[in-house]
Write a structure and sequence with these properties.
It contains two helices and six strands; from the N terminus they run βββαβαββ. The chain is of the alpha+beta class. The radius of gyration is 15 Å and the shape is globular.
Length: 121
Amino acid sequence: IYQAKQLRLVICSKDLRPLGLIDLYDFNPRHRRAGVGIVISEPEDRDQGYGGESLSLLCEYAREVLQMHQVYASVAESNTRSRHLFEKLGFLKTGVRKDWLRVSGGFQDVLFYQKILKDVH
């Protein structure tokens, strides 16, 4: 992560079936922050707790191993599942990027979320 400034991990079920990806990107060791992204590939695997558990574990890893201060995420306004996931895990909506994504019929806002991780030291 220190060289590439990103870390991508595969989310797997208990029987090791790949379900999706979770990653840290735009890693900044000086300011101790990184963006986080997550995707569960198949619709039938969503809303099963995999995303929440993965995001929780990634935040714990970021805090305890990488000694990060915060993580952040950009979420399309229409992505209610992701918005709910980040909010449920303590991410706060701190901003809006107006007309950020081009979509069918126009543009869509992107919401900016941050989570301050409690320092271990």
